[in-house]
């Protein structure tokens, strides 16, 4: 082999290795700038931490205020709902009282012994005018005639129910009627069968 042929690496001049920069001392201006930047960074971090702390405090205050406002709003809403419910209940009660009054009046005119019985037997929600009330009382009177008072004549004063004349009432020592003696006589008559 001849020496004429050479590999490209052999023929090229080898590059000298790159020289590393020689360590140099930073100038004093660079040290002052570095210290100033570090000091500015520390101040900025401290300010950021303080701002974050303030933001957290403000967020908690805001949430508290919103909670109070919300609770006040909820309180007002609950009060309004209760007032509306109470008004509805009172309105229903007034309607019921009015209708029961109509029924009592109609039952009394129809001769019921106790007009409250008519109120108990009838559905007041269906009776929204006087004509319907009168019609319902007449129907109740027909369906339950025992609720109507019996047509009886007047009873004598003093409790004597014997049906006899007032001459049968015994007189006391003072000449006035003695009702106790009359009741005793009525009782004895009923017991002895005389």
Work out the count of structural domains. 2
- Termini Cα gap: 177 Å
Radius of gyration: 57 Å
Classify the beta-strand content into a percent band.
Answer: under 5%
Provide structural commentary:
The protein has 5 helices and no strands. The N and C termini lie far apart (177 Å). The protein folds into 2 domains: 110 residues, no CATH class; 26 residues. Helix content is 63%, strand content 0%. The protein has 194 residues and is mainly alpha-helical. The chain is rod-shaped, with a radius of gyration of 57 Å.
Keywords:
194 residues, mainly alpha, 2 domains, 63% helix
Would you summarize the structure shown here?
This protein has 194 residues and is an all-alpha fold. Helix content is 63%, strand content 0%. The N and C termini lie far apart (177 Å).
